[in-house]
Amino acid sequence: MIWLTVTLLAFAAGVLGQLRLRSPLANPTLIATLLVAAGLLAGGVPYDTYLRDVQPLTTLLAPAVVALAVPLYRLRALLARQWRALLIGGLSGTLTAVAADAGLAQLLRVSPDAARALLTAPATSPVALQLAPFTQAPPALAATLAVLSGLIGALILPALLTALRVTHPLARGIAIGAVAHGVGTARAREEGEHTGAASSIGMGLAALSVTLLVALLAQ
Amino acid sequence: MSGAASVTARLNAPARFLLGLGVLMAFAALGQALVGALHLPLPGSVVGMALLWAALGAGVVRLHWIADAADGLLGILGLLFVPATVGFLQFLSAGAAWGLWLLVMTAALLLGAGAAGLLASRLLRPEGTPERP
């Protein structure tokens, strides 16, 4: 119970910090992660113990992802009109990221375990977890790198897109979701419902395309 | 159908929230079951999202049953990922290798999102005024 309490309060502190600081680094998920990690390290609490304590949050993640169907349904007419931009933009973003992860990991001589885990980082962590047997990556590392990829994406991608003059909410959303999936979608929703809906489409397409790619390569 | 709508409209907000949460969890479970039965390497929740979208389109599920619960859960989506992001603690022993991992990951994010954003901007069809025929 204590760590569930700490996590809830740390996230609330993160939301307050975001309101106060208005800096892109003041992201509630980042602030909560750092506060909780510091607490666990200080208390010498193993991650498995923590995970048991926060089981209710993990349970709520599945219905929350299902709930992404609601903004998709609300905006169905707009999204249907723009399906080409969303499909091509999303797929090219995800595949570019997978190729960059693979190429750079080889170029920089990343250890084989981490290089395999990085391959699935552009897909949401449950996908990374389920693909680990096919990529022969350590499952926990694949899931961790995927969710951290989402977090880093949430921190840096809005600024990147602004610098590239990508201003349309659907273009911003599909770009964030295509590589930064869940946490990225939480961030994209802060920009508005259109950005959030496009981001959840990007996340769904990334789940499908990374799965297909790994299945093909594993043959 | 209008009878059902008036019944759910009479529910107070917490009860409507519970109805919505129940429906969302049912679709999560349905997605999970489908993934297990068909051996799909996809997360059950993403399949559940597609099923719910289809059910809303087909009119099997009404938007007002689930809107409150969906907006509530999505409002704290960032919280629900904290248990997973804290997972980096399992790999602290990798030490300096983290620098390299984060570098690769960040570069891939910038390249992927940059490509997607620029391409999607070009491919978006111009939308006139919202009430355009």
Q: What does this 3D model show about the protein?
A:
The complex is a heterodimer of chains A (219) and B (133). With 219 residues, chain A is an all-alpha fold. Helix content of chain A is 85%, strand content 0%. The longest helix of chain A is centred in the last third of the chain and has 26 residues, at 193-218. Chain A is globular, with a radius of gyration of 18 Å. Chain B is mainly α and 133 residues long. Chain B has a domain at 2-77. Chain B has seven helices and no strands. Chain B has helices spanning 2-10, 13-38, 44-58, 63-75, 77-80, 82-85, 97-123. In chain B, helix 2 packs across helix 3 and helix 2 (13-38) crosses helix 4 (63-75). The longest helix of chain B has 27 residues, at 97-123. Chain B is extended, with a radius of gyration of 21 Å. The two termini of chain B are 30 Å apart. The chains are: A mainly alpha (219), B mainly alpha (133). At the A-B interface, helix 1, helix 2, helix 3, helix 4 and helix 5 of A face helix 2, helix 3, helix 4, helix 5 and helix 6 of B. Chain A: Keywords: Hydrolase, Membrane, Transmembrane, Transmembrane helix. Chain A: It holds the Pfam family LrgB. Chain A: This is Murein hydrolase transporter LrgB. Chain A: It is a multi-pass membrane protein.
